[in-house]
Design goal:
globular, six-stranded parallel sheet, binds guanine, three-stranded parallel sheet, 41% helix, Rossmann fold
Length: 278
């Protein structure tokens, strides 16, 4: 049986470290503040947004909630972002994705000032990450790196394979593994002989968005498997992109779903919020 990489435990450690740091900042009169914007009331987004607000409260970060109507115009939304960009009381701005179809996500991401871009989605933030400059790191990939580091799993010199090439996870994940001196391959839905490539991985990151896609025949004996996916199966139970039961006896370490990468995303968002005032 593989070692379980406990994201809930590691994320709690990170949040407790941040809580102590925020308490010390408070002594100096500094309180970070995150504006959280949700457009419409998609139930999954509401769960994520609530968890973000709860994490802020736990750590001592102030949060301002904007619950906007589904039919708000893009212009109005951009107006709110512009106000928040100029509001000195607000340190971080987060717009929960996905947005309704009539709103251009790219325009919204670009409207958030890079100084307050705690999601790490703005092209300037992405560019800084790409060239290794200081700046916010995208939360889910940064959370994966922390999971590996805090589990004493070395990345340097390892064969790292990422399945998925999204702007939020796959692409930045590959860049952060590269930054840690991994040898990185990005694969995706059009990759030929996918299994042949994933079976080379010492560290395999699954971010394909297909439930239980990665089975034992995709993994090398003793590999470390990180599952970024989250889905509900036929019985309404949560599962990831990895068929956990099928691979668990073949690998050396694996993240569960739930309780693996998910809680780390929020912990790293909180870290970015504190970073705005460090
Ligand atoms: N939707 C899914 N993941 C994320 C995330 O990390 N940030 C935001 N803003 N929206 C998301």
């Amino acid at each position: 049986m593989a070692r379980l990489i406990d994201g809930k435990l590691i994320s709690t450690q990170i949040k407790d470290e941040l809580k102590a740091e925020v308490a010390a900042l408070k002594e100096k009169g500094i309180v970070p503040c995150l504006a959280v914007i949700q457009v419409g009331n998609d139930p999954a987004s509401s769960v994520y947004v609530n968890n973000k607000k709860k994490a802020c409260a736990y750590i001592g970060i102030e949060s301002l909630a904007y619950e906007l109507e589904e039919n708000i115009s893009q212009e109005e939304l951009l107006g709110i972002i512009d106000e928040l960009n100029h509001n000195d009381m607000v340190n971080g701005i987060l717009v929960q994705l996905p947005l309704p179809k009539h709103i251009n996500e790219e325009a919204v991401i670009k409207a958030i000032t890079p100084k307050k871009d705690v999601d790490g989605f703005h092209p300037e933030t992405v560019g800084n990450m790409c060239i290794g400059s200081k700046g916010f790191l995208p939360c889910t990939p940064a959370g994966v790196i922390q999971l590996l580091k805090r589990s004493n799993i070395a990345i340097e010199g390892k064969e790292c394979v990422v399945i998925g090439r999204s702007n939020i996870v796959g692409k930045p994940m590959a860049l952060l593994l590269l930054r840690e001196n991994g040898t990185v391959t990005i694969t995706h839905s059009r990759t030929k002989d996918l299994k042949e490539i994933t079976k080379r991985a010492d560290i395999l990151v699954a971010a394909i968005g297909k439930p239980k896609f990665v089975t034992a025949d995709y993994v090398k004996e003793g590999a470390v498997v990180i599952d970024v996916g989250i889905h509900r199966n036929e019985d309404n139970k949560l599962c990831g992109d990895v068929d956990f039961d099928d691979v668990v006896d073949k690998v050396s370490a694996i993240t569960p779903v739930p309780g693996g990468v998910g809680p780390m995303t929020i912990a790293m968002l909180m870290n970015n919020c504190v970073e705005t005032v460090r």
